[in-house]
Design goal:
This protein is an alpha/beta fold. Helix content is 36%, strand content 30%. The strands form 3 sheets. Strands 6-7-8-3-9-10 form a 6-stranded mixed sheet, sandwiched between helices. A 4-stranded antiparallel sheet has the order 2-1-4-5, with helices on one face. The protein has a 4-stranded antiparallel sheet with strand order 12-13-11-14.
Length: 335
């Protein structure tokens, strides 16, 4: 659906700055694809090359089989009709109503008045804003403004939806509702959705695959489940660590009585009683100090910090058993 080949974007100044550095990505039709990274990683710049709001310095942009890299004028306008975009700060026209904001995209595309009325009415129902048809942006909450932005981005029956930090200006509850809406639109209409975010929780909850960017490069690309359960690059591991928040207080390292270790489960093992079996088989005490099991894409991943105490031989055997029956173990501290 979307193929980015060796994309480079450079900005000239006192010194040339390379915001995107030789990135190649293939985004499948109908998937929700995430691009994550810290501020300045190049993710928003890369997103904007897909509809040529940012022209690449070099490389190719292929959308639905068409190489649009050199498009301009009418050819570019037609190509962009397939691609909707929603923004972090909504970008609504303040002196137009909700209906008029959504209709604006269709007017630009020269749709008939009857088609505009029917389509906007349909979209207001889709995003749950039927009662806000004649309201102005100043009368809406942040979540409602973003719902207008989503409706506007879909007005011309776009096949692709580009989302540039769509929830970063929203509270947690509203973020959840907007992500649920985007996922339901993806499932209902098969629209390809590309989401930019600096928050791993966003891609974890809604994306199928994710690319991690750092200093203009894609440093890791995989299914969301694999990214969270077995991250490879240090940047990815750091981002996940902050999301999972498994830092332990210093006092805990002093108080535990045996071997403090982190245990990561993947797949079916996440719901099997590996720890209780190890305690029973090898006569050790296993105390869970921190942990949880959550589901990503319907598959479980479990992460626990445990204290294993007992005789030296028994502890060694129990840890070997745990390591053999889980995805990853890491000794954090030994008393």
């Amino acid at each position: 659906m979307i193929f980015l080949e060796d994309i480079v974007v450079e900005f000239d100044g006192v010194k040339t700055f390379r915001a995107v550095d030789t990135v190649s990505l293939q985004i499948k039709r109908g998937e929700v694809f995430g691009i994550v990274g810290a501020s300045g990683a190049g993710k928003s710049t890369l997103l904007r090359t897909i509809n040529l709001l940012e022209r690449p310095t070099s490389g190719r942009v292929v959308v639905d089989g068409d190489d649009i890299t050199g498009f301009s004028g009418e050819a570019l306008r037609k190509a962009r009709l397939k691609i909707g975009m929603i923004f972090q700060h909504f970008n609504l026209v303040r002196n137009k109503t909700v209906f008029q904001n959504i209709a604006l995209a269709m007017k630009i595309a020269r749709r008939s008045e009857s088609e505009i009325t029917a389509r906007v009415t349909e979209l207001l129902t889709l995003v749950g804003l039927q009662d806000k048809r004649d309201s102005y942006p100043a009368q809406l909450s942040g979540g409602q403004k973003q719902r207008v932005g989503i409706a506007r981005a879909l007005a011309n029956r776009q096949q692709i939806l580009l989302c540039d930090e769509p929830t970063s200006a929203l509270d947690l509850e509203t973020t959840r509702s907007i992500l649920d809406l985007l996922k339901s639109i993806n499932l209902k209409f098969g629209i390809t959705v590309v989401i930019i975010s600096h928050e791993m929780d966003v891609v974890k909850s809604v994306c199928d695959r994710v690319a991690v960017m750092n200093q203009g490069k894609v440093v890791e690309l995989d299914d969301v489940y694999n990214i969270f359960s077995a991250p490879v690059h240090a940047v990815t591991r750091d981002m996940i660590k902050y999301t999972l928040n498994f830092d332990l207080p210093e006092e805990l390292f002093k108080k535990h009585t045996g071997m403090l270790m982190k245990v990561i489960y993947r797949g079916d093992k996440a719901v099997e009683p590996v720890l209780s079996e190890a305690a029973r088989f090898f006569n050790v005490n296993i105390n869970i100090l921190h942990g949880k099991i959550e589901y990503i894409g319907g598959k479980p991943i479990g992460i626990f910090v445990v204290d294993v105490a007992g005789g030296e031989f028994e502890v060694t055997k129990s840890i070997s058993y745990i390591a053999a029956n889980t995805a990853h173990t890491e000794v954090l501290h030994v008393n």
